[in-house]
Amino acid sequence: MTRERFSYYVRRAVSRLPPRLRERIENVAFVIETEPSDGRRSLLGLYHGIPLTRRSGGYSAVLPDKITLFQKNIEEVAGPGPEERVSQLIEEVVRHEIAHYFGMDERRVRRWEKHRKSN
User: Fold this and answer.
1) CATH code of the domain in which 36 resides
2) What Cα–Cα distance (Å) separates residue 65 from each residue in 85, 94, 98?
C-alpha cells in the first residue's frame, strides 16, 4: 500500500472517532513510520507524550504529543487480502493510542478493547 493511501486511512480513522473525544484532542501529531527503529515487529502504534490526566495547569507551550503508526507492521498483521482489513486495523490502533492520550494505561486499554469487541 502506498504511504498516501495509508495516510488517508489514518485521517479517516481519526475522523471516525466519537465527536466527544475528537473535540478534546489537541496538539497531537499523527505520524506514519515504516517500522519501529528497534525492529519490534509486534508494535503497531506508539503514543509519546503526557496523557491528559497527568497534565497540570502549567502545561503549555510544549511540542505536540505524537502518535506513530508503523505501516509495515500493520500491513503484516492485517495479512493479504482486501485493503479494508488494513483500514480496520488502523482504526483499532488509532483508538488504542488515543486511549493512552486520554490517560488509560495498557491494562485498562486492553480491557476496554475487549469490552468493545464483545458488544
Assistant:
1) 3.30.2010.20
2) 27, 14, 11
Write out the DSSP string of 10-61. HHHHHHTS-HHHHTT--SEEEEEESS-TT--TT--EEEES--GGG--TT--S
Answer yes or no: are the C-beta atoms of 72 and 33 closer than 8 Å: no
Structural domain containing residue 105 = 3-118
**pTM for the whole structure:** 0.87
13/7 Cα distance (integer angstroms): 10
Structural domain count of the chain: 1
User: Is the pLDDT confidence value at 61 over 80?
Assistant: no
